[in-house]
Design a protein that fits this description.
Radius of gyration of chain B: 13 Å
Number of helices of chain B: 0
Radius of gyration of chain A: 13 Å
Largest sheet of chain A: 6 strands, mixed
Largest sheet of chain B: 7 strands, mixed
Helix content of chain B: under 10%
Oligomer: heterodimer
Strand order of the largest sheet of chain A: 2-10-9-4-5-6
Shape of chain B: globular
Largest interface: A-B, 19 and 22 residues
């Protein structure tokens, strides 16, 4: 079955970095766009970034541009999110999700999420 | 960016009720809208895509309608498993966005 498993979350101080990973299985990873979405504690969902099938295209929300970098390794069926210069407002559960095959669209399935806490 | 506004923010209903949630887009998104259900402590689950297409395995009591800027998610007969938070998502632009969510509570 299709499965996405995130890892790499944790507690970091403001200004520090963290790299999230998402291991995919059960589908042809290289056939899909992939996305990262986050959810601050008790809040709604926020799209962060997507990456195209061959990494040609990426997109970010304004609040993470220049600080976060999405990447993928199709040989390893893995998605990554490098997060630098972390801020308190980046505290959230981070989900990876499978996106569309021709363009970014609805996402399904989602991983279980990994919690990132940014606090001094 | 396209803004998505859901209403109501909270909805109290009883088992068996017909429930309707509305999502409005700040500009036309054609039919590029999806609906998700999220239960506490769990990842969201896709219910409806392209405004009205039911995702495989989702009960037929869920339905979606609309196009352009106004969309609805309807649960024809609310079941105990349906108490959750529901989000709409536009995927018309290359920077897609979610509505703020509608929590369906037990009345």
């Amino acid at each position: 079955q299709v499965r996405l498993v995130e890892s790499g979350g944790g507690l970091v101080k403001p200004g520090e970095s963290l790299r999230l990973s998402c291991a995919a299985s059960g589908f042809t990873f290289s056939d899909y766009y992939m996305s990262w979405i986050r959810q601050a504690p008790g809040k709604g969902l926020e799209f962060i970034s997507y990456i195209s099938k061959s990494s040609t295209y990426t997109n970010y929300i304004d609040s993470v541009k220049g600080r976060f970098t999405i990447s993928r390794d199709n040989a390893k069926n893995s998605l990554y999110l490098q997060m630098n210069s972390l801020r308190a407002e980046d505290t959230a559960i981070y989900y990876c999700a499978r996106d569309g095959q021709r363009s970014p669209e609805w996402v399904d399935p989602w991983g279980q999420g990994t919690l990132v806490i940014v606090s001094s | 960016d396209i803004q998505m506004t859901q209403s109501p923010s909270t909805l109290s209903a009883s088992v068996g009720d017909r429930v309707t949630i509305t999502c409005r887009a700040s500009q036309s998104i054609s039919s590029w809208l999806a609906w998700y259900q999220q239960k506490p402590g769990k990842a969201p689950k896709l219910l409806i895509y392209k405004a009205s297409s039911l995702e495989s395995g989702v009960p037929s009591r869920f339905s979606g309608s609309g196009s352009g800027t106004e969309f609805t998610l309807t649960i024809s007969s609310l079941q105990p498993d349906d108490f959750a938070t529901y989000y709409c998502q536009q995927c018309n632009s290359y920077s897609w966005t979610f509505g703020q969510g509608t929590k369906v509570e037990i009345k």
